[in-house]
Design a protein that fits this description.
Layout: E1 3-7, H1 17-26, E2 30-32, H2 41-46, E3 51-55, H3 65-85, E4 89-92, H4 113-133, E5 136-140, H5 156-166, E6 171-176, H6 177-183, H7 187-196, E7 200-205, H8 221-231, E8 236-239, H9 247-259
Parallel strand pairs: 1-2, 1-8, 2-3, 3-4, 4-5, 5-6, 6-7, 7-8
Helix pairs in contact: 3-4, 4-5, 7-8, 8-9
Bound molecules: 3-hydroxypyruvic acid.
């Protein structure tokens, strides 16, 4: 059976992040955070929460030489923090994102051939870093239509292709079904394909439209949950969603969508 986690950046927003982590932990979920450099790490540690994922870099990019060096350097810093918090997965995007989730190096149109080759090289180095230090880097698919215009390798198909081509245990996909629904749809088949190839490091969920908890939009998450159970998926399913109203209620709706 899979484990459930909740992203502390998006719920209980009137509380400091470590208090949010405590509330999520007390409700029986693992906890995810984004940019660790914005948080009081000692306070997060004191919550006793089990951390399942955090952003695995501070700056940088997969595709240009200087950006890749910065990505690797800040990924090494992130690994130290992951060890401090006991966090097993470090999340990556197709390029660095600013505070609004927008790419610091946006791409007009599709990524070029040299960009794919450079991304493959950088991700291989990150996978090696993960294997050497006992963490798993996950490459997340995003959507360019609503939340992250201009991010290269945003499609789930792109992240799947890169992770499969790198083919190392230190790199897996963060299969975000909210972003995939906006970008590509066909979610059940996507889950089956990624799981069948052993590429899923974790799954993230929110409903469409609005990026709120499961049950508030068009995605049939109970059906996705049945697919995951049938496949024997034993990884993490994390809610990365705004609460449509009360945050405790959003957590319970998430739990009931995935535990029936
Ligand atoms: O939008 C997302 O899914 C993100 O991970 C932003 O950091």
């Amino acid at each position: 059976m899979y484990t459930l986690a909740v992203c502390a950046e998006m719920v209980f927003r009137d509380l400091p992040v470590h208090e949010r982590a405590r509330r999520i932990h007390d409700a029986g979920f693992q906890v995810e955070i984004w940019d660790w450099s914005r948080h009081d790490l000692a306070a997060l540690e004191r919550t006793g929460a089990v951390f399942s994922s955090m952003t695995g870099y501070l700056r940088g990019s997969l595709t240009d030489r200087d950006g890749a060096a910065e990505l690797l350097r800040t990924a090494e810093e992130s690994v130290k923090v992951a060890h401090q918090l006991g966090c097993p997965r470090l999340n990556l995007h197709g390029t660095g994102l600013d505070g609004d989730g927008l790419p610091v190096a946006p791409v007009a149109g599709e990524a070029t051939g040299p960009m794919w080759i450079a991304a493959h090289r950088t991700l291989t180095r990150l996978a090696e870093l993960g294997e050497r230090t006992g963490v798993t880097f996950t490459l997340e698919n995003l959507n360019t239509a609503v939340d992250h215009p201009g991010v290269p390798f945003a499609k789930a198909a792109d992240t799947l292709a890169l992770v499969e081509a790198v083919d190392r245990p230190g790199l897996r996909m963060n299969l975000d079904l909210y972003h995939a629904q906006i970008g590509e749809g066909n979610l059940t088949e996507l889950v089956r394909r990624a799981h069948g190839r052993g590429l899923i490091g974790e799954i993230q969920v929110a409903d469409v439209p609005g990026r709120r908890e499961p049950g508030t939009g068009e995605i049939n998450y109970p059906a996705i949950a049945r697919t995951l159970a049938d496949l024997g998926y034993e990884g993490t399913v994390a809610m990365e969603a705004w609460a449509s109203g009360d945050s405790d209620l959003a957590l319970e709706r998430f739990r009931s969508a995935f535990t029936g």
